[in-house]
Amino acid sequence: MKLSEEVMNRIIARERLARKAAEKILEERTLELFEANDQLKRLNRELELRVAAGTQDLRDSESLFRSMVESSSDIIVKATPRGICTYMNPAVTYILGYLEAEVIGRHFLHFVPDGHREEVMQFFSHQLESRENESYLEIPVRAKNGKLLWLGQKVHFTLKKGKAVNEIIAVAREITEQKLAEEMIRRSEEKYRGIIENMHQGLIEVSNDGVIREAYEGFCKMTGYQRSELEGKQISMLFPQKAAGIGPEVHKKAGKAYEMQIKTKHKGLIWVLISAAPVFNEREEKIGTIRVHMDISEQKRMQENLLQAKLLAEKSKRAEQEFLANMSHEIRTPLNSIIGITELLTDTKLDSEQQEFVDVLHHSSEILLNLISSVLDISKIEAGQWAREDVPFNLKKELEALQKTFTYRLRDRQVTVLATVDPAISNYLIGDKSWLNQVLVNLLGNAAKFTEKGQVEILARQIKSERRTRWIEFKVRDTGIGMEQDVLETIFDSFKQGNNTIGQKYGGTGLGLAICKKLVELQGGRISVKSQPGKGSVFTFIIPYEESGKKATKEAMTDESRKQENVDFNGVRILVVEDNEMNHTYISKLLDKWEVEFIIANNGKKAIEILRGEKFDMILMDVQMPEMNGYEATGKIRQMNGNARVPIIALTAGALADERKKAIGSGMNELLVKPFTPDQLQEVISRFLSGSNQKNMNKVIPMSVNKDQLEEIYGNDTNFMQLMIRKFLLNTPAYLERMRKYFDDRKWRELERIAHKCKPTFGMVGLSHLQALVEEIEEQSKQEKKDVSTSEKLLNKIMAENKKARKDLEKIINQPGR
Amino acid sequence: MKGFIFTSFVEMVEDHYGLVMADRVIVDANLPFKGHYTAIGSYDHSQLTRLALSLSKIVKMPADDVFARHGEHIFRTFVKKYPGFFNKKDDVFSFLERIDSVIHPNILKRYPDALLPRFDIRRKGRVMTMIYHSPRKMAHFARGMILGCLKHFRENASIEMNYIRKDGTVVEFVIAK
Questions:
Q1: Where would a tag sit more exposed on chain B, N or C end, judged by fewer CB atoms within 10 A?
Q2: Which conformational region is residue A384 in: left (phi greater than 0), alpha (psi within -120 to 50 degrees), or beta?
Q3: pLDDT per residue over A782-807, tens digit each?
Q4: A24 and chain B in contact, CB less than 8 A
Q5: What is the mean pLDDT of each run of 10 residues along chain A (818 residues)?
Q6: Where are the beta strands (DSSP E) in A98-226?
Q7: Touching check for A1 and chain B: CB below 8 Å?
Q8: Contact A10 B39 (CB under 8 A)
Q9: Is the preceding peptide bond at A240 cis, omega within 30 degrees of 0?
């Protein structure tokens, strides 16, 4: 077909326009696309950021939770629904000790001890089935070290879509301690419930306002009331009726317990010990008390009896002590005088015979004193109150003295008194001289009593020697009436005499042998007796003594010294407070002799008045005086000006153990027991006089003089010592002359006597070796067979030594330093 | 209405009646613009009606048939352009069934604002009922498509059109083989 140009142009034009329009649309579309793309890109980026942020948040959150789980002190474990552990936190290791490798992959029941597995399994199965989201169970688990621990465990499930269980999460806390505590409380409760229900003692619960809430079986039994009669009633129904307004008598005991009486239904009042404790409710408010009652009727009765018995015993004892004290004083006071006067007698001019008598008298009175003391003292011994006093003493001397005494006593009978002392026995043993004397006096006394004619012998021999212990066996043998065998069995018991008639015929208290036995046994010895009726008896006892290293000088000289002669207390002022006339005389004589300035006051009051105006160097104070006794007076004196520090010496007749304590306690410095010897008084006075006579003895003492001996006798009292030496130098030549004369005339008895007499004087001036020589002469004089030549040699030696000694002694006197 | 409807109409006229006729149809249609349609543009539906009427007047064909012819042509074009839609196992019915589910959605991908009809399809043995829903009222166009489809698959069937709505927005096609 031919197309006209017009048509052709239109067609082409349309095509071109169409193309252009299409191009335009394309452009627009492309732009749209681009923008859409751009948007998309932006969106994409935003999304990415959001996703990243979201992811980070998630990670942070995850990290936070992770650290919480990891650091939790509670156990956190994840497991599959079957129970296999898939995760555990470090707390598991910390609490149970297991490491991850030991837990992950294991079934959790592995850690539950066998006996509990089924129970636990059932619990969790049930939870799974019933879809309980959360559960709590307390389960036991075994730790790695084998220990059993308790866990309080919360378990919950997480679910997948479609409600199947995804996993199990368990959070558990250790509750072992709580569990244990619970267990203990439970056991404790059971225990106490058991106790309370079985209690014999009465238990009741009382409300705050005194109503008995509950009464238990034990209380009902104790009081005789039924429960119904008690519960709901006021507690006061049990209180005994007292005067209105006064509560029941209550004795508070230690802690919160108290004693009181309560009414019973049938038995009247009984004493009970009540212990009460408060009861609290959960708000810690006191709602009442629980009271436990214990019937103490029996105890109360016993208490009362004991109290009565105690009061009685104390009364008895006091009476006894008072008696002792009074008797002591009453008896000793006159004795004081006797002994004192005897001493004074020795100072008067006596011939040798008279002197001998006075010696015996003196010794006898001392023994008498001891005898009386023993009667008073048997009770002291029984009570362990007569203390043992070990001093060095000369056994031979003692026995000889006893022999003399009893010879004199038996002078009117055809009885010889002999004393035989084993020469092996040391002259210086340590023991209680007065106890020994006591025993011997008792035994000899008995022997003397029961022997009409024949012999009374005292023998002493050393039967054993071990280091420094000497076992001395004493025998007192007599040819008296003897005793039957059955008598011998009880002879040593207190108050037992041979038979009932002996007391009447022979007198005596029946205490003597008992005392002997006691005294011997207290020294570690033993006593026995052998006897045949008509033939006589022999009492044997053994005592161990220690041998003395030192010499018993002072004691050895007591029986015949005249040392008081040369005491110099010139210028000393003493106040004597004493109400007894005889004692006045005695003390005055002594103090006069010693050239002491003194005033006597006869009671405490006067003494104090005197003290107000004058000063003294010492006060001798009798303890028992009317108006004001010695203790009181001392107390007052101590508070005075001026004389407050004066030494006060108590003079007491009492020999009871507390006398000294009492004296010192009231302010006195020392105690002198009446009767006291001039020795003792002198010693005390010089001891307590202040220092003017304290001098050192450290001068050169020549060899023939025994320095130790001198020091022992005189201490620091140089004056006195020198006086004694002077006296010695004056008197001794006469003695020695007589010795020589007697020896020449072969007057052995006289020689013996003179030697015996002047022997101690050598000792007094430290010439112990001379003393020994003189003693030897004495011994030799005694012997039947005389070796005259030996004696002569001895005598010559004595003379020579004496000469030398004299020179030395003169040196001592002439030394400076008075 | 999408541009390619117009361009395919013009092509159809050019193919069947030549370029001169095509030109005449455009001129006589008294279009508000020069008639330079591009497939990717969009133009008012009324222009298609003018064009169809213009053609119908010139070749003295009923308008309905013009539309049908158009439909057929478009179908032939589709076959050439989108061979992917057609697979070997297809027949008319199975293809038609895919219009709503497969074909139209693909078209919309390229021409998002296309107003495409909706079909309710029921098939019973050798009879298929397609109910056409569209505000465009282009039922005859649809008829043409169906015809084109039949011709493509080389099948014979009768097509019956029932106006369920008088305004032509809902039309039932009964296709019986």
A1: C
A2: left
A3: 887 777 888 888 888 888 888 888 88
A4: no
A5: 79 86 86 90 92 88 88 90 90 90 90 87 84 84 90 87 82 89 89 76 87 88 89 87 56 71 87 86 86 87 91 85 69 77 81 87 77 65 67 86 85 88 85 86 87 91 87 92 85 65 53 83 90 91 82 47 54 84 80 84 85 85 81 84 80 72 82 79 78 39 66 73 80 86 87 84 81 85 79 86 84 61
A6: 134-142, 148-159, 165-174, 202-207, 212-215
A7: yes
A8: no
A9: no
Compute the C-alpha angle A117/A119/A124, nearest 5°.
95
Helices (H), chain B: 3-28, 45-59, 63-81, 92-98, 104-110, 139-153
Beta strand A453-466 pairing with A414-421: parallel
Q: Which residues of A touch B37 (CB under 8 A)?
A: 18
Q: Chain centroid to CA A630: how far? A: 33
A513-556, pLDDT tens digit by residue? 888 888 898 888 999 999 998 889 999 999 999 887 655 444 44
Point out the residue among B34, B39, B40 whose CB comes nearest to the CB of A17. B34
Q: Are strands A670-673 and A648-652 parallel, antiparallel or unpaired?
A: parallel
> Which residue in A777, A773, A775 sits closest to A788, CA to CA?
A777
A13 touches chain B (CB under 8 A): yes
Cα nearest neighbour of A3 on chain B? B20
CA–CA distance, A318 with B15 (Å, rounded to integer): 168
CB contact under 8 A, B20 and A25: no
Angle at B66 between CA B64 and CA B71, to 5 degrees: 95
Q: List beta partners, residue A729.
A: none
Closest residue of B to A9, CA-based?
B23
Q: Which helix (H) or strand (E) holds A218?
A: helix A217-223
Confirm or reject contact between A12 and chain B (CB < 8 A).
no
Q: Pick from B19, B34, B40: which is nearest to A22 by CB?
A: B40
Say whether B37 and A13 touch across the interface (CB within 8 A).
Answer: no
State whether A22 and B27 contact (CB < 8 Å).
no
Closest-CA distance of chain B to residue A3, Å: 7
Instruction: Find the residue in A nearest to B6 (Cα).
Output: A18
The 8-class DSSP code of residue B103 comes to: I
User: Do residues A15 and B36 make contact, with C-beta atoms less than 8 angstroms apart?
Assistant: yes
Beta bridge partners of A135: A155
Alpha carbon distance A70, A299 (integer Å): 69
How distant, in Å, are the alpha carbons of A13, A400, A768 from that of A775? 192, 14, 10
Q: Position A14: which residue type?
A: R
What tokens does A83 get? 């129970």
All residues of chain A having their beta carbon less than 8 Å from the beta carbon of residue B19 are 1, 3, 7, 11
Residues of B within 8 A of A18 (CB-CB) are: 7, 36-38
Q: Tokens standing for B29?
A: 């249609």
Partners of A138 in beta bridges:
A152
How far is the C-alpha of A638 from the C-alpha of A645, rounded, in Å?
7
pTM score over 0.90: no
Contacts of B37 (CB under 8 A, 6+ apart): A18, B3, B6, B7, B10, B43
The Cβ of residue A758 has, within 10 Å, a number of other Cβ atoms equal to 21
A33 touches chain B (CB under 8 A): no
- Do the beta carbons of residue A27 and residue B39 sit within 8 Å? no
B148 Cβ under 8 Å from any chain A Cβ:
no
Question: In the structure encoding, which two tokens stand for residue A636, read together?
Answer: 């007052």
A16 interfaces chain B, CB cutoff of 8 Å: yes
Within 8 A of B6 by CB-CB distance, chain A residues are none
Identify the closest residue of chain B to A19 by CA–CA distance. Answer: B38
ipTM above 0.85, yes or no: no
Q: A817, A699 in Cβ contact below 8 A?
A: yes
Report how far residue B28's alpha carbon sits from residue A263's, in angstroms, rounded to the nearest whole number. 144
Smallest CA–CA distance, residue B19 to chain A, in Å, is: 8
